[in-house]
Design a protein that fits this description.
This protein has helices spanning 46-52, 83-89, 104-114, 121-131, 135-138, 151-164, 181-194, 207-213, 236-241, 246-252, and strands at residues 8-17, 20-30, 35-39, 63-71, 74-75, 90-93, 169-173, 199-203, 216-222, 228-235. By secondary structure, it is an alpha/beta fold.
Amino acid sequence: MINPDLIFQVRNLNVYYEGFRAIKDIDLDISPTSVTALIGPSGCGKSTLLRCFNRMNDLIDGARVEGEILYDSHNLYAPEVDATEIRSRIGMVFQRPNPFPKSIFDNVAFGLKINGYNGNMAEAVEQSLRGAALWDEVKDRLNESAMSLSGGQQQRLCIARALAVEPEVILMDEPASALDPIATLAIEELIRELREDYSIVIVTHNMQQAARVSDETAFLMVGDDRAGYLVEHGPTNEIFTTPRDERTEAYITGRFS
């Protein structure tokens, strides 16, 4: 049944890479204007699941997606859906900062130019940098190379680049794993601010980070067939304090990884 109050409804989702099934039979609901954390041991399919939400797996040779993901009540994988248009509405921030070898200004303006933006580019870039809490640090160096920024600043620049095209959803694949503790805290604070206006799905290996930034948490595990599956999903405070499944408790308390 379609629920218009959800941003994503995942139903019987399976993803294959050639003959290998990476995730199996996943059902998951994602609420709007909130942060949902995907946690679980390495190899359980967290990033594979994340990439399904904006059809990034389409870009991988041999990848095949079966099942259904409803986005705003429409199936993302319907034949008539334009994957490129979907990626403009559902932004992606990767594990390591990946600024383009261009100026700070041109990095943020890149997506706007591709989409044929006709408004005030300078204002749009400033707004996006402010949204990523980076404007005050770079406003006097917009024509400098993005590569001159620190790792944490580069990651916030990538977030600004995602914000510029005004997405509804931001996907984050371990966005702070390559950063030092101070830069990590800055990214976490930014995530808390962004959830007021965006739906965010984040993959993280850091249990403390999931507890700090997310409203809901989904825990995945690896089956005997090496396919990832969903064990439990619910409000983060419940997952971390009173999980329903003993496997969730064992993982969160560090009894297995």
